[in-house]
UniProtKB/TrEMBL annotation:
Source organism of the structure: Algibacter mikhailovii
One of the Pfam families matching this protein, by short name: Radical_SAM
Keywords tagged on the record: 4Fe-4S, Iron, Iron-sulfur, Lyase, Magnesium, Metal-binding, Queuosine biosynthesis, S-adenosyl-L-methionine
Residues binding substrate, per UniProt: 24-26, 39, 83, 209
Annotated [4Fe-4S] cluster binding sites: 43, 47, 50
GO biological process: tRNA queuosine(34) biosynthetic process
Domain (Radical SAM core) ranges: 30-209
Keyword Oxidoreductase: no
Cofactor remark: Binds 1 S-adenosyl-L-methionine per subunit.
Known pathway: Purine metabolism; 7-cyano-7-deazaguanine biosynthesis
Name of this chain's protein: 7-carboxy-7-deazaguanine synthase
Length: 209
């Protein structure tokens, strides 16, 4: 990447945009809400069950002017979800400042593994074993969403729940390819441990993005 372009990316004035789309939020606290998703490229957390592995290599997603991303977003919805990849690999200050300046509600879905930048109305923390969140993200997360792939993920979920703030809403979500096996286990676990809630990828049941 040319030096001038890299400087703009480093400042958050350009970002590696993978895709952007208007749909229904399918997961967590805001499920069922119309939202505009901005998916950024780049992630080194490397979950083997990731369903958007094509987001991992930021070089595959050319830098796009942040102001253009914001102009597109404002055409569709007042609720914006920044996702990835791992969006906190990039400085989110400029993007969220511009979105907030347009009066939008700005949400992020993050593993929390990088420094928290930007101004957020809602932080969905989905921690991963390979690269744990920073303490700041634990402190500020509005919801904790742990993906359940096998039984050890319940242990991991409890360890993560012990680190978030007391107002954080706790969710267990089945990994899609294992849903037939783990959904009954999640149901039993939540009934035995009602501080948790079940999150489902309802957008996949609705057959929408």
């Amino acid at each position: 990447m040319k030096k001038e372009l890299q400087e703009l990316v480093d400042k958050g004035e350009m970002l590696p945009l993978m895709e952007e789309f208007y749909t229904i939020q399918g997961e967590g606290y805001h499920k069922g809400t119309a939202a505009y998703f901005i998916r950024l490229g780049g992630c080194d957390v490397g979950c083997h069950w990731c369903d958007v592995k094509e987001s991992w290599d930021a070089n595959l997603h050319p830098p796009t002017a942040t102001k253009n991303i914001v102009e597109n977003a404002k055409k569709y919805s007042d609720t914006i979800v920044i996702t990835g990849g791992e969006p906190l690999m990039w400085d989110m200050s400029e993007l969220t400042s511009q979105l907030k300046g347009k009066g939008m509600q700005v949400h992020i879905e993050t593993s929390g593994a990088y420094k928290l930048t930007g101004t957020w109305d809602w932080i969905c923390l989905s921690p991963k074993k390979l690269k744990l969140p920073t303490q700041e993200v634990y402190d500020k997360a509005h919801e904790l969403k742990v993906i359940v792939y096998n039984k050890d993920d319940f242990r991991f979920a409890e360890a993560q729940a012990a680190k978030v703030n007391e107002n954080c809403i706790l969710y267990l979500q089945p990994e899609w390819s294992k849903r037939d096996k783990v959904v009954p286990e999640i149901v039993d676990y939540v009934m035995a441990n009602p501080k948790w809630k079940v999150s489902l990828q309802t957008h996949k049941y609705l057959n929408i993005p």
